[in-house]
Write a structure and sequence with these properties.
One of its GO terms (biological process) is negative regulation of inflammatory response. The chain is an alpha+beta fold. It has 4 helices and 17 strands. It folds into 2 domains: about 100 residues, Roll (Mannose-Binding Protein A, Chain A), CATH 3.10.100.10; about 120 residues, Jelly Rolls. Strands 3, 4, 5, 6, 7 and 8 form a 6-stranded mixed β-sheet that branches. Strands 9-11-16-13-14 form a 5-stranded mixed β-sheet, with no helix packed on it. The protein has a 4-stranded antiparallel β-sheet with strand order 10-17-12-15. Strand 1 and strand 2 form a beta hairpin. The structure holds calcium ion (CA).
Length: about 270
């Protein structure tokens, strides 16, 4: 091959490489190297998205089923996912559905997710059930709870509070305040079924925008957890209850603090 031909070949290979990366980017919603589906963990119409603790696209069909069952739900059907999508459920991540189908719900067309289409992006019934995806679960018993919160301060409560929470609840609260600010969490009331290692019911705090990284702690019992201040401008709270024994629930307040307020807070705590 001539020198010129070799160079052209290399250039072509590079172009194909870039194209493959771009295609991945469009299909799976990578942005600045971060999977931005992780912010969409809230539930809608009883449907919610889960990924493996190991991360994105790690669940076989069997494992996906187990994840939903563990939380008292079942795999969502295509119709349940569509019903959730119609009230705004938008997730940029393909997950297992009932009967081995795979897809994800797109509300707003975007170039980086869903091939610019709106609707359920349907990968069809998978022949190979060992493929690894995320999962969409359905749990009609779960009360509406969680969500994305961007107010500078807010009170958050367990589902049904001040009544006792019910069995088989799962809630994610994603808190995002102004860039450069941090989030101070302060508990006002706390009563969650007590159990060794809080395996039955618990509230978990994550110092990140998802429940995959930044694990801070898991809490149960009736002692108020200590205040917590995030390292960045985002935080995630996750509440889970199992299939028996409930308790009073919790009430907490979060406040967005800037660096000078933070300095005062820290000064107070040491004085
Ligand atoms: Ca329980």
């Amino acid at each position: 091959m001539s020198h010129c031909g070799l160079r052209a070949m290399r250039a072509l290979t590079a172009v194909f490489g870039v194209l493959i990366v771009l295609k991945e980017t469009e299909a799976w919603g990578y942005k600045n190297g971060i999977l931005h589906n992780s912010i969409w963990l809230e539930q809608a119409a009883g449907v919610y998205h889960r990924e493996s603790r190991k991360g994105r696209y790690q669940l076989t069909y069997k494992e996906a089923k187990a994840v939903c069952n563990f939380e008292g739900g079942t795999l969502a059907t295509f119709d349940q996912l569509e019903a959730a999508r119609q009230i705004g459920f938008h997730v940029c991540a393909a997950g297992w559905l009932d009967k081995g189908r795979v897809g994800y719900p797109i509300v707003k067309a975007g170039s980086n997710c869903g091939f610019g289409k709106v609707g359920i992006i349907d990968y069809g019934y998978r022949l190979n059930k060992s493929e690894r995806w995320d999962v969409y679960c359905y749990n009609p018993v779960a009360k509406e709870c969680g969500g994305v919160h961007t107010d500078p301060e807010k009170v958050l409560v367990s589902p049904g509070y001040p009544d006792e929470y019910q069995d088989e609840q799962i809630c994610y609260w994603h808190i995002r305040v102004r860039f450069g600010h941090r989030i101070r969490l302060h508990f006002l009331d706390f009563d969650i079924e007590e159990d060794t290692d809080c395996l039955s019911d618990h509230l978990e705090i994550y110092d990140s925008y998802d429940d995959v990284s930044g694990f801070v702690g898991r809490y149960c019992g009736d002692q108020l957890p200590d205040d917590f201040i995030s390292t960045g401008n985002v935080m995630t709270l996750k509440f889970l209850s199992d299939s028996s024994v409930t308790a009073g629930g919790f009430k907490l307040q979060y406040i967005s603090v800037n660096s000078s307020q933070l300095f005062d807070l820290l000064a107070d705590s040491f004085s």
